[in-house]
Design a protein that fits this description.
The chain is mainly alpha-helical. Helix content is 54%, strand content 7%. It is globular and about 75 Å long. It binds adenosine-5'-triphosphate (ATP) and L-tryptophanamide.
Length: 337
């Protein structure tokens, strides 16, 4: 029976071994919550991962590892559809249609492309990296998603998705649902623990500010305890003047479910060290079972692979229908069977 719940869709790249705290708090945590109330589709976007140079064996391993971490984080294949992007060929097919609808100028304005291409040396960026946001547009529109849970850095790509959905609908008739971003204010952007002016990212210049969920818990605790704060001593949420402390408070609050006001009251008159030590404990308590669960899924690759195969089958049923409609609307001649 077709579900009547609103639909959500999101994706994560298998470009690094471990998810980091920004991925978890900014996106994956919401995915887990939304599977309860929404018809949820989540995928490991391996086609996006090859827009920068990759090692084939590593990509394969990281794709399984990403799926294992999503399950360890709480995705339940009974409550959501979890799959690998390349297992559903319709993504690349709809992306072509969207490539032919998107303007070169609007694609050139994507800030993530500018950042990423600068990192690899402007002249070395591939056409795939340039067109990466358009593949993301196809990912979202194929499922007629109402909402897309992501971190703040993805907002521009969701805007592009809305623009292209509107353009297609305007030109060829109502076809695609125009999606909304689903970005929670408190966790929209988790900052680097060493440089709270930049977002936590797997491509950080030093690993010290990056909390990888699969790090050894001792390393995690050490990184939290050496987080950069400020020369003041007051524990208060003030992103403007106290970005480091505010970041720690946001993380603490989200992981424990306690409000920032409660935490400010508890730490009134205490030193930064106390806050960091307690947060390190909270973090270790979170990552330790996460690591164990991830390993359990990895230890049984056959079950993991068949679970992903089932997910792809469910995803494909939806994607194929949307693609067929889009092909028809743009005027492609149907193949005779
Ligand atoms: P990175 O910045 O580490 O390279 P990414 O954004 O390129 O990550 P993914 O790993 O696929 O690519 O990101 C998965 C999700 O995590 C996205 O929804 C993204 O918005 C979110 N995310 C990434 N970093 C942060 C962060 N520091 N704070 C909040 N959300 C984040
Ligand atoms: N571009 C995203 C990953 C991504 C995605 C998607 C997110 C690919 N397809 C569809 C939401 C919906 C990133 O870099 N984090």
């Amino acid at each position: 029976m077709a579900s009547t719940s609103p639909r959500v869709l999101s994706g994560i790249q298998p470009t690094a071994g471990s998810f980091h705290l920004g991925n978890y708090l900014g996106a994956v945590r919401q995915w887990v919550a939304l599977q309860e109330s929404h018809d949820a589709f989540y995928m490991v976007v391996d086609l996006h991962a090859i827009t920068v140079p990759q090692d084939p064996a590593e990509l394969r391993a990281n794709t399984r590892l990403a799926a294992a971490q999503l399950l360890a984080a709480g995705l339940d294949p009974e409550r959501c559809t979890l799959f690998v992007q390349s297992h559903v060929p319709e993504h690349a097919q709809l992306a072509w249609i969207m490539n032919c609808l998107a303007g070169f100028g609007e694609a050139s304005r994507m800030t993530q492309f500018k950042d990423k291409s600068a990192k690899h040396g402007a002249g070395n960026a591939t056409v795939g990296l340039f067109t990466y946001p358009i593949l993301q547009v196809a990912d979202i529109l194929l499922y007629q998603a109402n909402q897309v849970p992501v971190g703040e850095d993805q907002r521009q790509h969701i805007e592009l998705t809305r623009d292209l959905a509107d353009r297609f609908n305007g030109r060829f008739g109502e076809t695609f649902t125009v999606p909304e971003p689903y970005i929670l204010k408190e966790t929209a952007k988790i900052y680097d623990l060493q440089d709270p002016s930049i977002k936590m990212s797997k491509s950080a210049s030093t690993p010290k500010g990056l909390i990888n969920l699969l790090d050894d818990p001792k390393t995690t605790a050490k990184k939290v305890k050496s987080a950069v704060t400020d020369t003041d001593t007051v524990i208060k949420y003030d992103t403007e003047n106290k970005p480091g402390v505010s970041n720690l408070l946001s993380i603490y609050s989200t992981l424990t479910g306690r409000t920032i006001a409660e935490l400010e009251a508890e730490y009134e008159g205490k030193m930064y060290g106390a806050l960091k030590t307690d947060l390190a404990d909270v973090m270790v308590e979170f990552v330790t079972p996460f690591r164990t669960r991830t390993q359990q899924y990895l230890d049984d690759p056959e079950t993991l692979d068949s679970l992903l195969a089932k997910g792809a089958e469910k995803a494909r049923a939806v994607a194929a229908e949307t693609l067929a409609t889009a092909y028809d609307k743009v005027g492609l001649l149907p193949a005779k069977h």
